[in-house]
């Protein structure tokens, strides 16, 4: 069986973070391993508190795990602090160089709670620089590149910076925060042929907010890469999974809904 690894924060609701990633890995047919970077105290309405895990504990988790097993793809989610992000970076030196790495550059939760301290941005950029795919939402793309991403041209410019200046092999800029259609932009580096851009169009699905969609999308892409799918197929399948999950999302608490996943017993 193929396995994927997520290095992410804990969300006790199971809607986002490590708990959601592992559920997505499962429904995508890969074994999920998980290393926790931070605890959060949160319900479906808001993040109440964030407690980073001791950086040495993060590093030891990675060291011990990678000495024993070989994930076929790795996802990075919430990294919380500069020290934790550096531990992750150091730990990943043990990863085989050809292992696909998906970086979800989580900066803040939807309620505005910061999930990565500002001084960790340089190390986040370095991690993005060695990624197979980076999956920012529009806010993260704007923050990481300093560009205005409100137009399609602006988005393409930001994607170019993520690839050419920051060093990712591909970028998926998610359009969910757009006021109109939530189209995503996929930019891929094609060796000598430069960067190709593909706009992935979609219609907005009506309904109350859904929590953890970004986590699920990047986890599903990671699972696809772990299974050996090519990047574009992995992304297409992940978008289909997340769109269906939003359509059938369910209310587990008083706040945001969570994604429905295939096999859920209703
Ligand atoms: N908690 C954790 C651990 C997360 O990784 C995320 C995802 O970014 C969140 C909370 C916030 O999720 P949302 O943006 O859906 O509020």
Compose a concise summary of this entry:
The protein is α/β, with parallel strands linked by helices and 266 residues long.
How would you sum up this structure, described in words?
The protein has eight helices and eleven strands. It has helices spanning 17-27, 55-68, 82-91, 121-129, 138-145, 152-165, 213-226, 231-247, and strands at 3-9, 31-42, 47-52, 73-76, 101-103, 133-134, 170-173, 184-189, 195-200, 210-211, 257-258. It has a six-stranded mixed β-sheet, with helices on both faces. Strands 7-8-9 form a three-stranded antiparallel β-sheet, covered by helices on one side. The chain has a two-stranded parallel ribbon with strand order 10-11. The longest helix is centred in the C-terminal third of the chain and has 17 residues, at 231-247. Bound molecules: pyridoxal-5'-phosphate (PLP). Pyridoxal-5'-phosphate binds at residues 8-11, 16-17, 40, 42, 47, 77-78, 106, 109-110, 115, 211-212, 214-215.
What attributes characterize this protein structure?
266 residues; alpha/beta; 6-stranded mixed beta sheet; 3-stranded antiparallel beta sheet; 20% strand; binds pyridoxal-5'-phosphate
Ligand set = pyridoxal-5'-phosphate
The percent range for strand residues is: 15-25%
> How many helical elements?
8
User: Could you give the count of β-strands?
Assistant: 11
How does the overall form come out from the CA principal axes? globular
Poorly predicted tracts of residues:
none
Mind telling me the C-alpha Rg? Answer: 17 Å
Q: Overall pLDDT, averaged? A: 96
Widest sheet, order of strands: 3-2-1-4-5-6
Structural class: alpha/beta
């Amino acid at each position: 069986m193929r396995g994927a690894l997520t290095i992410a924060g804990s969300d006790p609701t199971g809607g986002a973070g490590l708990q959601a990633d592992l559920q997505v890995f499962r429904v995508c047919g890969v074994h999920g391993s998980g290393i926790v970077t931070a605890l959060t105290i949160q319900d479906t309405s808001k993040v109440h508190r964030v407690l980073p895990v001791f950086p040495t504990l993060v590093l030891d988790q990675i060291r011990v795990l990678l000495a024993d097993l070989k994930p076929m793809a790795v996802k990075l989610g919430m990294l919380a602090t500069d020290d934790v992000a550096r531990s992750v970076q150091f730990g990943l030196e043990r990863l085989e160089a050809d292992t696909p790495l998906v970086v979800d550059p989580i900066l803040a939760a939807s309620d505005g709670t910061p999930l990565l301290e500002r001084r960790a941005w340089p190390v986040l950029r370095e991690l993005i620089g060695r990624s197979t795919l980076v999956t920012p939402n529009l806010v993260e793309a704007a923050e990481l590149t300093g560009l205005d991403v409100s137009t399609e041209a602006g988005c393409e410019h930001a994607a170019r910076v993520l690839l050419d200046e920051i060093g990712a092999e591909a970028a998926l800029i998610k359009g969910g925060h757009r006021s109109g259609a939530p189209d995503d932009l996929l930019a891929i580096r094609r060796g000598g042929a430069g960067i190709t851009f593909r706009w992935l169009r979609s219609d907005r699905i009506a309904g109350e907010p859904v929590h953890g969609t970004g986590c699920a999308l990047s986890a599903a892409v990671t699972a696809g890469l772990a299974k050996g799918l090519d990047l574009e197929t992995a992304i297409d399948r992940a978008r289909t999974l997340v769109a269906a999950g939003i359509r059938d999302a369910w209310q587990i608490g008083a706040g945001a809904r969570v994604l429905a996943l295939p096999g859920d017993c209703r």
